[in-house]
Design brief:
The protein contains eight helices and 13 strands. The protein has about 325 residues and is α+β, with helices and mostly antiparallel strands. It folds into two domains: about 210 residues, Lambda Exonuclease, Chain A (Alpha-Beta Complex); about 55 residues. Strand 6 and strand 7 form a beta hairpin.
Length: about 325
């Protein structure tokens, strides 16, 4: 099967951009096909496509969450530049579409990477979340945002994509979620879009797209698990944090004692104290080279009351 023709339009005016968006199911709106959009119903989507919204602009009414996202988008990009120096981000200024399929998108950022596992051009989709909302998500982004990110990668024909979410707590933590190209999920999105247009063109209100659960299962790679019903771990993680604090304090005390002991010995190789023989001799250690490898690292981060992350251990 040949690749569909893609079209790129330079955005030079908001009015023209809004008109283009009425021609297509855009990535930011397409989750409404499964009733997954946080701010847009299927009825509102149909009204927008027919340009009958009360706003008269082809866009749903603005809200505080959408406004926050616009304002903080550049701040999240700045945080990404600090935390992921292997990425070079470029703010997107183009509208992308696949005319034959009547789907389109306006990406947040394109990116290139020095990581050989991320060849070619990628998509960076940026979101923000209030602390209470992030806590409700339990550390995992909503399916709607994953669909949007994959749809943008598909429409723009990008090889890789990341969904990046900043939590608006005091520490402004940023969370990264890889959204790899996924043939099965993409096929389900395209089928849902084709069904929508078929019903919409007939004058009917398109029904809910089938297979939301199957689409979510297609995205689930087993990399995330909900342990909230594990009573043992729920009760023992606070104890783990307490023990880690005790260990850390003890290690600091040992380091202080060792420093005092070394200072007292000076250049002496051995020393004696009642009950102790002490050695502080020079030893030769052969050079060793540790081969590069990928390892799993366990980190446990406590979530504060405002949704931010406290210390990791």
């Amino acid at each position: 099967m040949s690749e569909p023709a893609r079209e790129v339009r330079q955005i030079e005016s908001t009015g023209a951009w809004l008109d283009w968006r009425r021609e297509d199911l855009t990535a930011s709106r397409i989750p409404a096909l499964w009733n997954l959009h946080p701010y847009l119903s299927r009825e509102q989507l149909a009204d927008i496509m027919r340009a009958t919204t009360s706003a008269g602009s082809g866009s749903p009414p603005d809200n505080s969450a959408m406004r926050r996202g616009r304002i903080f988008e550049a701040a999240v990009a700045a945080a990404i530049a600090e935390e992921r120096p292997e990425w070079t981000l470029t703010k997107a200024s183009t509208y992308h579409r696949i005319p034959a399929l009547r789907i389109g998108c306006t990406p947040d950022y394109f990116a290139t990477s020095t990581n050989p596992r991320e060849p070619g051009r990628g998509i960076i989709q940026i979101k923000t979340a209030a602390p209470r909302v992030w806590e409700k998500w339990q550390g995992r982004p909503p399916l709607a945002y994953t669909i949007q990110t994959l749809d943008e990668a598909m429409v723009c024909d990008c090889a890789w994509a990341w969904l990046v979410i900043m939590v608006m707590s005091d520490s402004y933590p940023v969370h990264y979620f890889s959204v790899p190209r996924h043939a099965e999920a993409e096929a389900r999105i395209l089928t849902a879009a084709a069904d929508w247009w078929r019903q919409f063109d007939s004058g009917a209100l398109p029904g809910t797209a089938a297979g939301a659960a199957e689409l979510e299962a297609a995205f689930d790679d087993g990399s995330h698990i909900d342990l909230s019903e594990d009573n043992f771990l729920c009760s023992m993680l606070p104890e783990r944090a307490r023990i880690k604090t005790v260990i850390s304090d003890a290690e600091k005390q040992i380091a202080e004692i060792d420093a005092a002991l070394k200072t007292a010995m000076g250049s002496a190789a051995t020393a004696w104290l009642p009950g102790y023989n002490i050695s502080f001799k020079t030893q030769h250690r052969r050079e060793t080279v540790i081969a590069a490898r990928d390892i799993r690292v366990l980190r446990v981060r406590a979530v504060s009351d405002d949704g931010g992350e406290e210390s990791a251990a």
